[in-house]
Write a structure and sequence with these properties.
The chain has 217 residues and is of the alpha/beta class. It contains 6 helices and 9 strands, in the order αββαβαβαββαβαββ.
Length: 217
């Protein structure tokens, strides 16, 4: 059982304000990275969930602009929860999933902070999925890093996507993405939009991808 009091005693945090679709949101992020590094990991790999990625904001903004009220939505690799929390506030029925135990704590804390009343939050191991039902929309940002993840992700898509559903992915361009999409062409129609985010010192490209079944109308 999640307790915000216990969370606040366990983690030092700072807040990040985000506005999507003219709605304000506030997200808790780890203040001290050392507190969330896995000490058992000899490589001390950077935990990808500790920040709100630009791709997440692009995908959240896309969802906020759609007329999908009451659609069921499954988020994979939710991390801090930006996409699912924004989607819930715009009327989607959200199930947000995450594997990392600390990320789950931050996901639940952010859902609490943003007063999400209906969001379902669940642990999900992509290799041993155990959630129920199918979903109108499956979403994820920055999921495609390793070829080892191709097969379990594709299996998740095929197991949990409802008939006539769609998959929405957002990520920066990287060398693993095109091979992943090449495999998916067997089952899905693929549409890709390039979104360019301009900051003071750089322009970042985000790929927003929609997959829909080839037999869908």
């Amino acid at each position: 059982m999640f307790s915000i009091e216990s969370f606040n005693q366990t983690f030092k945090t700072e807040t990040i304000p985000v506005t999507i679709g003219n709605k304000p949101f506030t997200f808790l992020v780890p203040k001290n990275l050392d507190e969330v590094l896995d000490s058992s990991d000899g490589k001390n790999q950077f935990p990808l969930w500790v920040k709100i990625w630009e791709a997440s904001l692009v995908l959240a903004d896309h969802l906020a602009k759609q007329n999908h009220t009451s659609k069921t939505l499954l988020e994979l690799g939710a991390g801090l929860g930006a996409i699912g929390i924004v989607a819930e506030s715009f009327g989607y029925q959200v199930t947000a999933t995450e594997y990392d135990s600390q990320a789950l704590q931050f996901l639940m804390a952010n859902a609490h902070k943003n007063e999400c009343k209906t969001m379902q939050i669940q642990h999900l191991d992509w290799h041993k999925p155990d959630i129920n039902g199918t979903f109108d929309i499956i979403v994820g940002s920055e999921l495609i890093y390793k070829e080892d993840d191709f097969d379990p992700l594709i299996a998740l898509f095929q197991k949990y996507l409802a008939p006539d559903g769609q998959i929405l992915l957002a990520n920066e361009p990287r060398k693993t993405y095109e091979p992943f999409l090449d495999i998916l062409k067997k089952w899905y129609r693929i549409e890709i939009w390039r979104k360019r985010l301009r900051a003071s010192d750089q322009t970042k490209t985000i790929l927003l991808t929609r997959l829909s079944g080839k037999n869908n109308a």
